[in-house]
Amino acid sequence: MVDLIGQYEKIQPEIDKAILDVVRSSAYINGPEVKNFQAELEKYLGVKHVIPCANGTDALQIAMMALGLKQGDEVITADFTYAATAEVIALLGLKPILVDVYPDTFTINIEAIKKAITPNTKAIVPVHLFGQCAEMEELMKLAKEHNLYIIEDVAQAIGVDYTYADGKKVKAGTIGHIGCTSFFPSKNLGCYGDGGAMFTNNEELGKKMKMIANHGQSVQYYHDVIGVNSRLDSIQAAVLRVKLRHLDEYATARQKAAAYYDKALANHPKIQIPARNTHSTHVFHQYTLVLKNADRNKLREHLASKEIPAMIYYPVPLHLQKAYKDPRYTEGAFPVTENLCKSVISLPIHTEMNEETQGYIVASVLEFLK
Ligand SMILES: Cc1ncc(COP(=O)(O)O)c(C=O)c1O
Description:
Largest sheet: 7 strands, mixed
Structural class: alpha/beta
Low-confidence stretches: none
Mean pLDDT: 97
Shape: globular
Bound molecules: pyridoxal-5'-phosphate
Number of strands: 14
Helix content: 25-40%
Number of helices: 13
Strand order of the largest sheet: 1-9-8-5-4-2-3
Order of helices and strands: HHHEHEHEHEHEEEEEHEEHHEEHHEH
Strand content: 15-25%
C-alpha cells in the first residue's frame, strides 16, 4: 500500500546522517533532536505547543487525561474510525458515544452529534479520516454553545489546510483545543518506528500534557499528577525532522496520484470516488472507493492475483466490534458506517506512485468491474 523503501532511497543521505548523528551523540532520550523537531513542527503547523509522545494512541489518551475528564463523562466520536479513538475513551473509564459519518466525505456527521449531546457530554473527537478535515467550523460553534472540548484526531491528516468561511487558513489539528497525531511509518509524516504528538494553543493544556507524558512530573522526581511514560525517541525525531522538510511535496505527490485515480474511475457506475470537503485540502492518506453492486472480496482477490494490494479500512464498525458492544448500539444503529464497512476498498497510494503503476492498477480494477 505504501513504498517506504522508495521514499527512503530518495532521501537516504539526509536520513542516514541524521540517524548516525544521534547514535554518535548518545542523546537517545529527550535529546536536542526531539526539541528541534518539536520547534520545527510548531512552526510548520503555526501552533504554540507541540508535545511529542510515543504514539498516536498515547497522544489521544494524554489529551483526555489533561482535560480532567471524569469517569462516566461522555465523549462523542465517529463510528467509522480506527479503534484507537474509542479505545482510549473506554480505557479511561469515560463513555464512548458513537455517531454516524457522512456517506461521501466519511467524516463525522454534525447533525448526528447534535442529537447525541447530553448534559454529560464533555468532549467530541472528530477524526480527519483518510486525509481531510471534518466540518471543523460548525463543530467549534457547537462546542462553544455546549461548553465542550474538541480533540482533533489528525493521525491521518497532518499538513491539511482548513479554510474558515472568512477565508482564514489554518492547519488541521490546530483548530480544536487539542490535536493528536501519529507518526506510524505509513502515515503521511511517518518515522521508522512508533511516534506521536499533541498540539495545542493553550498554555495550560500544553504544560499539563507535557507533564502527564513524563510521569506527571515537571521537576524530576516530583510527581504532581499521575502520568504515563510516553516519549518520542531521538532517532525517530531525527528522521521526522528530515521528513517534515518534504511533507508538502509528499502531499502533492499523493494528490497527483489521487487525481489520476479520479480521472480514470470517476464516471464508473459501480464506483463512488472520494468526495472532497470544500473547506479542507485532502492529503490522501488513503484513496478509498465505495463500491456499488460489486463483489468487494472478489475484486480484492482479482487485484491480489495481479500483485496489487488493496485494503479494507475498516471492515467492522466500532459499534459491532466485540470490545465495544453496547446494548444501545445494535445492527442498523449507524446505517452509513455499516454500509461503508461493507463496500469500501482502498487502493495503493503513496509518495512514490507513477503513472505506469497506476495505469496497471486502474486497468485491473476496470477489468474486474466490466
Ligand atoms: C485515526 C487514527 N487515530 C489514532 C491512531 C493511533 O496511532 P498509533 O498507531 O500511532 O497509536 C491511528 C493509527 O493508525 C489512526 O489512524
